[in-house]
Structures are given as C-alpha cells and as structure tokens.
UniProtKB/TrEMBL annotation:
Residues 1-456 form the Amidohydrolase domain. It comes from freshwater metagenome. This is Unannotated protein. It holds the Pfam family Amidohydro_3. Signal peptide: none annotated. SUPFAM superfamilies: Composite domain of metallo-dependent hydrolases (SSF51338), Metallo-dependent hydrolases (SSF51556). GO terms for molecular function: hydrolase activity, acting on carbon-nitrogen (but not peptide) bonds. InterPro entries: Amidohydro_3 (IPR013108), Metal-dep_hydrolase_composite (IPR011059), Metal_Hydrolase (IPR032466).
Amino acid sequence: MVPGFVDGHCHFELTCTTTDGWVAVHTPPFHSLAAIAAEIRSSLDRPSGDCEWLLCRSSFSMQEKVEEQRLFTRHELDAISTERPIAVFASLHVASLNTPALRELGLWHSDAVHPFHGVVHRDEAGVPTGVVTEVFMMVPVPVTAEGFERAVVQHGRDLFNASGTTTVHSMPENLGQIEQLRRLHAAGTMSLRQRYYLISPGVATLDEADELSRLDAEGSMFRFGGIKVFVNGCGHDGEGVPLDDVKWSQESLDAFVRDADSRGFQLWLHSLNANGVRMAARAILGVTPDGSNPRRHRIEHGGDFIDLADLSLVQASGALLVTTPQFLHSMTSDPSGPRAPLRTLLAAGIRLVGGTDSTGTVPSSVSVLGNVATAVTRQRRDGSAFHPDEAIDAASALRLFTSGSAFGGFSEGSAGVIAPGSYADFVLLDRDPLSSDSGGAGATEVLATYLGGVQVWRNHG
C-alpha cells in the first residue's frame, strides 16, 4: 500500500477529451505518414457536433518516428480534405495544418501576426508549408458540454484512478470547463481531487483569476491553484531545429511575476529550454530575493531542461523545479534533448515536483509508476540509459509523485502521505515498487485506488 499519487503537472481535462474526441495517430503504432493519412481519411465522416475541425494527436518528434522523416505538408493534408479544417498535432506545441485550417486561424497571409508568438513555416513565395507551432490555444475544443462531463468522469476513473492517481494539478482549457468541473465536484461525481491553474495570457487574465481564487479558495476536492505562464514554447521551430522562442523580455516577465505575486498567486513558469529556466529563476528571485519563495513559485519542466551552470541561480531563487521523467524516452532521440539531472538536483537541495504532463500526446504518460520507473532506469526508446549517472533510487522517484508533488500544491500533510489527519487516499499494488527483486515500479500493477478511504477504482483483471 502506498499513498495515492499526486500528479503535480498534467492536462487532465485535455487527456480525457482527447481520448474520445480526437483521431489517435501516435507513432507507434503508426510508422509512416501514408498510414496516418489513411487513418485520417477514414475518420472524415466522424460526427463533428458543433466543431467542423478534425483534430488528430500524434507523438513528440513525429518526424523522427515515421519512414518519411518529416511532418505532414499542407498539400498532403489538402489531399485528404479541402473542406474540413485538419490539424495533426505532434505534441501540443507543433502541428501540421491544411489550407482551411490555416485560413481559419488567420495564418495564411505572409503578413499575418501569430497571437502566441509561434512559427509559421513558409515556402520561398511566402505561402505556408503547413508546419506551425503554438496554435493549440487557437483551435476549437471538439467536444460538447455533455461530452466533456462524460469524459472527465469516465476517464478520471479508467485512466487516472487506474494509474493510482488521486489528486491532479491541472490546466483547464477555458473558463467554461472550470464551471462544469465545479458542478461535477459539488454533485460528488468526480473520483479525484483537483487543484487547477489558469494559463495567462490565454485562458484568463489576472483580474479574472482574482475572482476565481476567491470563489474556489476552499475545499479538499476542487480548488484554485494559481497561474501558469509560458516563458517560451517548445524551444525549437517545430521541425526540431533549436529556437529560443521566448514570449517575453526579461523585464516584461519580471513585471508580470511581480503583479501575480502581489495578488497572492502561485506561479507555474513553463520552459522547454535552459534559457527559459534561467529567465524564470531570475523572475522568481526578483520577488523573493532571500530565496524563501513563500508562494512556492515553480519552473515547469525546469528539472528536465536546466543547465547545471544555472544551479546556483535556481538555489538562490528558491524555485521548485518540475520534472516529467517520461520525456527521457518520449520527447526525442537527439542527445541534446532533456537531460533531467535529477540526482544532482536532489543532492543540491532543490525541491522537485513530479508531473506526468499527460495531454494525450503520449498515452502511456498518465502512468505514474511508468514515470517512476523511468526516473530510476533512464531508459530511452532504443533501450539505452540516458545519462545513467543522474538516475535516482526508487524511493526518491516515488516521492516525486507523492510528498514532493503534494508540497508543490500546498497539500503536504493531507495528500501524498498515509498518516493521521491525511485524506486517506491510497493505492494497493501487486508488489513492492521499491524492490528491484520484483521488477520495480515498471513491473508493478495497480490493484485498487481509494479516495478518502472509499474505493474509486478496482483492477478486475
């Protein structure tokens, strides 16, 4: 028996709706653009409800995993349909679009301004090739209100509870979803605890967050958490070429962090490269020069992308660093990918928060035990161990997703522990995940998950 897992960074809502409302074209099982195109074409008659878009989910670095060694072009997607907008996402940050999609998003013309500072690849004539970055916040959500509620209730159980997760720190896609989730929790139909964070700019302004922070300030099941800010995007141009795609100057980021901090908000500062981690640490240091960091501001993915030359800066800021171990095998096979120096960071006294970053891009990423196993083995797709000297022991890896992630959401003592006065959220496993003799976390299965002492999921296998 172990404490219920606390997923310290996940797109819970998107994971659930993706499962039902998007075309799954992950690599693997698909190995070519031709096979993926056939799957998309066969889905054209899928009912679209209020959304005419056909949205498809593939994998990180899709171009590395298909025979053609590239992403779809606009022409190839136009050959599937010139009537229905099509987007094939290779992570939330990278997509291939057909002509109707590019036109609907206002990205067709060469003088178009990308509202989220993304990249639109164009040919020599200035016409889009189809490959873009940072359009996820621009596409419609392809699910009805009823479909959303059905998805989060069902998949909260069969995906998250089935993985032993009892608490999620998540990022709803819009304010309407927050209202729906509030009603579901009030009705007692949700099977996990949620602390939600508002993407700003994008989902909410700081003034809107002020209102929600008062409305959802209390409660053990559903409550406001803070603000998520994108310091940068994916750190490359969509085709794998490194790009420092920062969304802010240091001065403007510092000003935003000061404003949010003065309102009492915890901040999540997203970065997928070392410079963004550096900028985030500087901004946090600016509001907590003594390093105490009472708001527990965090650098999302900082534990994966930090340059250890900046370790003293991060230490001085007191920033929490979030790590997603599955990135080691899912994101890229390039040696310049995320190094995740977890052993060094723990030895330096950095507080680490474990998050699956589940979105639907990597279906298996929802498994906390899978992430724990990767933190221990650091095994990549080809079976090799990436920077094995940075491996951590199983107990430390498990703490990333229990007490460590609970601390990252101000719920230490209640979640992520089994102790008098805690929530009584726990998981029954078929073996000891800390024992290498029994195969460790990677071979461990969840038998049952309990929320507040009540069974919410059981393995009937």
